[in-house]
């Protein structure tokens, strides 16, 4: 009897973990499987085909949404990285690191609150909603993630390198571009990927701060879902899952040097 | 002469100028809009095209009725249940990955992180195939003649289930990273010194996981309180939550000032609740720590 009890407690944790992973992945696997279904009726399996992927690449609505998403994501990545690096260097050199708390504030509020407040101020000052307003919103989120990562890396850089560079006659500009920036590179790469993924994931900012002509992929999926399930969305979701997995693999391969979480 | 003076002044203050873009961005697009929201919540009949009335408290007083409070409390309880379930599921899983798994660690971690980074709508969408009328669950049930005639969507339990599903990685990741920081030889030391599993768990593991649990609770509770996508798609507006009401006031009704007032009330409510969460967690954990001190003496 005691033996059974011991086995039960020994097996409980692994079984619980297996159950949780099954719970996490059954919906995803079903989603991926149905993207290869020939039938247009979403829940009836007929036979294997890649027709929906072909449809996906010929759908102008999806391609437009993809283009918009990419444009917004790249804009947000470039802007937030540029501003974070400048900010971090300035903050550390002027020794006013207390100002950093200002950038942690973004994540305290639910996203919907930021969405509606941005919406009301844009409309009030009659800023036309579109790609630009989306980039503005996503850069705000990007800063909240990239500033802490770049800050912690910048603090790790050995100050002697910079001093040595200056002693050997390099100007501050040369030192920045030849010493500081290359040493920040892994942090820039990680935070860039992170901002990119966050921009692609975002729905609420896009929902409030975009117009009909600037639909993103998230908005496209949302509008499709309201009208029902379609295998094209399965194909799209499968590709997005694939992209995410690749990004996670890349991130985890450099995670030894930079801690994301 | 004067020009070079200016140049050297700029050079001297270059660190200050470097900070300007980010600080201005944050001020202009975070603090100003939030302030603006609070201001319009006090203006009578404000609409997007311009200011209409003067200062008023009417927006707030008209919201203090039973139906609005009910939405607030419903969101609160849903977020509370969601956070608790996520914590209860995520902690054992993170513990297993961090402490127990050896060969499978990287693999398990990978499959935990992928949903964390996956588009939220893709995760929500995947549940349609499970819960629809012809979905996986209903097909499985009908094998035993237990099939339901309608979809299993559009109700409170379905919304809660999908919320737990979507927020689980947000709880598991911070807990995992806090557990990962524990020096594993501490656990061995604890058991070598005669502590049983339960003692080691409550007196070594749990106190050291505190920061991760706090971050996880925060990362799950705040967004699930304002959740909009899941109740809209999975619940088709049922249950009616804070997120849906805020969205209604700002996009459909013609009175965003009510929306601003309701958003402000929700934020104050959220701040109070978050504060209570922290106090509660702190209380539980310091009590644990004190318990271990007493044990030593």
Overview in brief:
By secondary structure, chain A is an all-alpha fold. In chain A, 76% of the residues lie in helices and 0% in strands.
Describe this protein's structure.
The complex is a heterodimer of chains A (261) and B (297). Chain A is mainly alpha-helical and 261 residues long. Chain A has a single domain (59-253), classed as Orthogonal Bundle (MetI-like fold), CATH 1.10.3720. Helices cover 76% and strands 0% of the residues of chain A. Chain A has helices at 2-34, 51-58, 60-94, 101-104, 111-124, 131-156, 159-167, 172-201, 204-209, 217-226, 231-253. In chain A, α6 (131-156) packs across α8 and α7 (159-167) packs antiparallel against α8. The longest helix of chain A has 35 residues, at 60-94. Chain A is globular. Chain B is mainly alpha-helical. Chain B folds into two domains: 15-56, no CATH class; 65-296, MetI-like fold (Orthogonal Bundle), CATH 1.10.3720.
Distance between the termini of chain B: 76 Å
Major sheet details of chain B: none
Full CATH superfamily name of the largest domain in chain B:
MetI-like
The CATH C-level name of the largest domain in chain B is Mainly Alpha
Report the radius of gyration of chain A as a whole number of Å.
23 Å
Which term fits the overall shape of chain A? globular
Beta-strand share of residues of chain B: under 5%
Mean pLDDT of chain A: 86
List the quaternary state of the chains.
heterodimer
Uncertain stretches of chain B: 291-297
List the helices and strands of chain A in order: HHHHHHHHHHH
Helix/strand/pairing category of chain A: mainly alpha
Bin the helical content of chain A. Answer: over 70%
Q: How many helices of chain A in DSSP terms?
A: 11
Total strand segments of chain A: 0
End-to-end distance of chain A, in Å?
43 Å
Integer tally of domains of chain B: 2
Low-confidence segments of chain A, given as residue ranges, are 257-261
- Average pLDDT for all residues of chain B: 83
């Amino acid at each position: 009897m005691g033996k059974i009890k011991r086995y039960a407690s020994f097996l409980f944790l692994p079984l619980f973990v297996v159950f949780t992973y099954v719970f996490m992945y059954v919906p995803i696997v079903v989603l991926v499987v149905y993207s290869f279904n020939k039938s247009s009726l979403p829940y009836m399996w007929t036979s294997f085909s890649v027709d929906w992927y072909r449809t996906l690449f010929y759908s102008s609505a999806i391609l437009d949404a993809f283009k918009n998403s990419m444009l917004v994501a790249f804009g947000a990545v470039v802007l937030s990285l540029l501003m974070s690096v400048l900010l971090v260097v300035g903050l550390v050199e002027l020794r006013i690191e207390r100002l950093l708390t200002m950038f942690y504030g973004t994540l305290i509020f639910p996203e919907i609150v930021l969405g509606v407040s941005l919406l009301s101020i844009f409309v009030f000052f009659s800023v036309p909603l579109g790609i630009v307003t989306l980039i503005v919103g996503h850069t705000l989120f990007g800063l909240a993630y990239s500033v802490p990562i770049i800050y912690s890396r910048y603090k790790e850089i050995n100050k002697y390198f910079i001093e040595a560079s200056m002693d050997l006659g390099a100007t501050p500009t040369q030192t920045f571009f030849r010493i500081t920036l290359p040493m920040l590179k892994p942090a820039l790469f990680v935070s860039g990927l992170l901002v990119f993924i966050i921009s692609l994931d975002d729905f609420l900012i896009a929902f409030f701060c975009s117009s009909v002509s600037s639909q993103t992929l998230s908005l496209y999926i949302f509008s499709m879902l309201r009208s029902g399930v379609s295998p094209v969305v399965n194909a799209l979701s499968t590709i997005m899952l694939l992209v995410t997995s690749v990004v996670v693999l890349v991130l985890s391969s450099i995670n030894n040097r930079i801690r994301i979480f | 002469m004067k020009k070079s003076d200016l140049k050297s002044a700029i050079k001297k203050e270059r660190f200050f100028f470097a900070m300007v873009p980010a600080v201005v961005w944050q001020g202009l697009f975070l603090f100003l809009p939030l302030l603006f929201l609070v201001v319009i919540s006090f203006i009578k009949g404000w609409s997007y095209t311009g200011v209409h009335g003067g200062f008023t408290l009417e927006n707030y007083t008209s919201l203090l009725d039973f139906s609005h409070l009910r939405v607030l409390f419903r969101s609160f309880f849903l977020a509370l249940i969601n956070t608790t379930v996520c914590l209860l599921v995520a902690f054992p899983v993170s513990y297993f990955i961090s402490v127990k798994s050896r060969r499978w660690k990287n693999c398990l971690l990978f499959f935990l992180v992928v949903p964390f980074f996956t588009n939220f709508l893709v995760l929500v969408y995947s549940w349609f195939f499970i819960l629809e009328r012809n979905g996986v669950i209903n097909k499985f049930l009908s094998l035993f003649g237990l099939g339901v005639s309608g979809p299993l969507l559009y109700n409170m339990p379905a919304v809660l289930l999908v919320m737990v599903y979507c927020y689980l990685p947000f709880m598991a990741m911070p807990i995992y990273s806090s557990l990962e920081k524990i020096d594993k030889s501490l656990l061995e030391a604890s058991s070598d010194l005669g502590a049983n599993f339960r003692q080691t768990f409550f007196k070594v593991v749990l106190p050291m996981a505190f920061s991760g649990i706090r971050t996880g609770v925060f990362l799950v509770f705040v967004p699930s309180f304002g959740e909009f996508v899941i109740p809209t798609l999975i619940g088709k507006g049922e249950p009616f939550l804070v997120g849906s009401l805020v969205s209604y006031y700002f996009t459909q009704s013609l009175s965003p000032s009510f929306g601003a007032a309701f958003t402000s009330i929700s934020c104050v409510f959220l701040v109070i609740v978050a504060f209570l969460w922290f106090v509660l967690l702190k209380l539980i954990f310091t009590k644990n720590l004190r318990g271990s001190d007493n044990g030593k003496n």
